[in-house]
Amino acid sequence: MQFLRFILISSILMSCSDNLIPLNESPSNDRDRLELAETYLNERDYPKALEVLQNVEVDSNRARVLTVAATLGGVGFSIWDIILDVIDNQSSGEKISPDNFFDSLSTSVFGEDTKAERIAAIGSSIDLLLAAPDSSDADVANLNCFLGGILGVVSVEDGSAAITSVSSSLTTIQNSAVGAGASRDECPGVTELETSLATLSEVQTNLQRVFASTANCSLVNTDGSSLNSIETKLKALETNGDQGCEAQPDCGDSAACQAQSLSCVSAIVVDDSSVAGDGQVSSCELVQNCLGNNCF
Question: Alpha-carbon distance 64 to 130, whole Å?
Answer without folding.
Answer: 10
